[in-house]
Design a protein that fits this description.
With 457 residues, the protein is α+β, with helices and mostly antiparallel strands. The chain is 21% helix and 24% strand. It has ten helices and 17 strands. The strands form three sheets. Strands 6-7-3-2-1-4-5-17 form an eight-stranded antiparallel β-sheet. A six-stranded antiparallel barrel has the order 8-9-10-15-12-11. Strands 13-14 form a two-stranded antiparallel ribbon. GO terms for molecular function: peptidase activity.
Length: 457
């Protein structure tokens, strides 16, 4: 073998080695690209929301239904939303807000229903956790004995003590999707956030064609008429601020442009990658409050956002209203507000709102103009501190999960890329009153042998 031949062989070996290295690099690069989370579009986020968002409500009594349909003042039925975050055996764990369980309802141990994506109602009968609602609320984990774990408490016409967060469980042998969990700390201002939940129509304001509220003879905002049909809503808007969670703010620390509606409290807040990064529960002060005397927003507050009823908790509603009973999920005519256009999609017209501050100086400014949520990072800390060990889904959503509930979202004036809302026509409750007017004894008697929920709708 000549010296030239040897050099040629060495060259070929070197090229082969280089090719192998390049192939390895390309392969690793491809794997890395696949492993990186991918930004999802509205339809893909909505698919995840549809499969994991639940509706939470107490049993609707006959007299309550009669009063509701008659629109009797002060006679209400409340409900909220939640998201499935874990499963242990046949026990599903739903993360929601504490104010979906008023102290009065908890103490009465009222049966609750959790409506899942397949329209089955899973009855929860042990809701009383034995906790008193005091200013110094102490978390007491009694899961197993009771289906409810609260990190704070809510008394109607008063305020939330502690953190406005709760876990409620239900039993089923059926398979339900578990929401992927993200990290709040990785969020950046301007990033789109998506909120999913079930609107409570009866406690929203009735609007004129120009978007102004309809008023009665006393100048009070008229509530919308009862409606048995419901559609789950998905809203999206940019993150405006992320502050540290504290009990002084009941844990609220994520602030975003307000497009939410009553009933969406407890629903999941997704990031752009389809991961839950928060639990929605509070709207801005710039909401119309059904049942209250109407005043233009400029007369209701200054741009300081300071509340004249400081300390009164108003979940998803007008924090500075002189009437303390104005919770977005409280359901009373004088307690709720509307946040939609005349066709019930999205915010009411901007002419009904004050201008947000260009540089919010404190949480009061943020509360005045933005919706807010619990952040999932701190929620996980609270859950661990309470001694609850959950196997959370920390992976990015799979293609199979995303495609399982996919449906098109047409772009129009209510569904812009950067800010919008969508009522899903494929995620409907045809008669919510019938669904939650359940008879427990008959339901238990007729319960399917597979241990699933009760199909009512």
């Amino acid at each position: 073998m000549t010296h030239a031949d040897k050099r040629e062989i060495d060259k070929i070996k070197w090229l082969q080695k280089l090719g192998t290295i390049s192939l390895v690099i390309l392969t690793l690069g491809s794997l890395g690209a696949d492993a990186m989370p991918k930004k999802l579009n509205q339809a893909e986020i909505n698919s995840l929301a549809k499969q994991t968002t639940v509706l939470i409500a107490p049993q609707l009594q006959p007299q309550e239904l009669e009063d509701l349909l008659a629109k009797k003042p002060g006679k209400t039925w409340t409900f909220g939303s939640g998201v499935i975050v874990a499963k242990e055996g046949q026990t599903y764990y739903v993360l929601t807000v504490a104010h979906n369980f008023a102290q009065e309802q908890v103490e009465k141990n009222l049966p609750y229903g959790i409506l899942t994506s397949d329209r089955q109602v899973h009855v929860v009968q042990s809701i009383n956790d034995g906790q008193n609602c005091t200013n110094n609320f102490q978390v007491d984990n009694r899961l197993g004995t009771t289906a409810l774990l609260r990190f704070g408490c809510y008394q109607s016409k008063r305020k939330v003590n502690g953190y406005d967060l709760a876990i409620v469980t239900f039993e089923s042998s059926l398979n339900y999707a578990i929401a992927p969990i993200g990290a709040t700390k990785e969020l950046t201002t301007g990033e789109l956030l998506y909120v999913s939940g079930w609107p409570n129509i009866e406690v929203e304001a009735k609007l004129n064609n120009d978007g102004s509220p309809q008023l009665d003879a006393q100048g009070r905002i008229i509530c919308q008429d009862p409606s048995p049909r419901r559609q789950r809503q998905l809203t999206w808007s940019p993150l405006q601020a992320l502050i540290s969670a504290s009990s002084a703010q009941n844990g609220y620390s994520l602030y975003y442009i307000d497009r939410t509606r009553p009933g969406m409290s407890g629903g999941p807040v997704f990031n752009e990658f389809g991961q839950v990064v928060g639990i929605h529960g509070r709207g801005s002060e710039n909401k119309l409050v059904c049942g209250q005397v109407y005043q233009p927003p400029t007369k209701q507050r200054s741009n300081s956002g300071m509340s004249k009823n400081d300390g009164i908790f108003d979940p998803d509603g007008n924090w500075d209203n002189p009437n303390p009973d104005n919770s977005e999920n409280n359901g009373s005519p004088d307690a709720n507000q509307q946040n939609s256009t005349p066709n019930n999609q999205g915010d009411r017209p901007s002419s009904q709102q004050s201008n947000p501050p260009t540089n919010p100086a404190n949480s009061n400014n943020l509360q005045a103009f933005y919706s807010s949520a619990q952040n999932i990072d701190y929620a996980r800390q609270l859950i661990v501190q309470a001694g609850v060990r959950l196997s959370l889904n920390l992976a990015s959503p799979s293609v199979e999960l995303i495609q399982a509930g996919i449906s098109e979202i047409p772009l129009n004036r209510s569904t812009l890329e950067s800010e919008g809302s969508f009522e899903d026509p494929n995620d409907v409750i045809s008669n919510i009153y019938k669904t939650f007017s359940f008879d427990i004894q008959n339901m238990l008697r007729d319960k399917p042998s597979d241990g699933g929920g009760i199909l009512l709708d």
